[in-house]
Write a structure and sequence with these properties.
Number of strands: 4
Largest sheet: 4 strands, mixed
Distance between the termini: 29 Å
Radius of gyration: 15 Å
Length: 155
């Protein structure tokens, strides 16, 4: 597994959010490998949505999890489409909690899976040649909440 944890979405360098970067990460992972990214920002924000789009362009399976309900989200991207059931996730999360601990507990994260479709076609695909990170970060500041791209709310 590979984990990325930028200090905040505001401080994330554009080069770490491009399709080329995520292609390199995927190339370093073994079959069935997982990339984990801490996203400090809401999936309604344009920059966060652009990162999700870039990741999804390179990984066939992308899920989003609320991490503690404080504006942090955990994005998990897998190199395969293999579905992992809730029971298997809880078993693996329990083992991780026993092995490494942490807050929030991994088992709590399993219950925070945001199971909804996130529309990302309205944000640019970030590439090494085109990554308008500053524009995306400021775009949200000028917009009322939810005015940019429609999405189904989590259940």
């Amino acid at each position: 597994a590979t984990a990325l944890k930028p200090a905040s979405s505001v401080a994330a360098p554009g080069s770490l959010a491009t399709t080329e970067f995520f292609a390199l990460v995927r190339g370093r992972l073994s079959e069935g490998g997982v990339l984990g990214i801490n996203l400090a920002g809401s999936p309604t924000q344009p920059f966060v949505r652009a990162v999700i789009r870039a990741v999804h362009s390179q990984f066939p399976s992308v899920t989003l999890w609320s991490a503690g309900g404080k504006g942090n989200y955990l994005l998990l991207a897998r190199t395969t489409r293999e579905a992992i059931g809730r029971r298997a996730l809880l078993t693996r999360a329990g083992a991780l909690d026993r092995e490494v601990g942490g807050s929030p507990a991994f088992a709590e994260l399993v219950n925070s899976w945001l199971d909804f479709d996130l529309e990302v076609s309205g944000v640019p695909l970030l590439t090494d040649r085109y990554a308008p990170v500053d524009s995306l970060l400021h775009l949200d500041a000028e917009s009322p909440e939810g005015a940019w791209w429609p999405m189904e709310k989590p259940r």
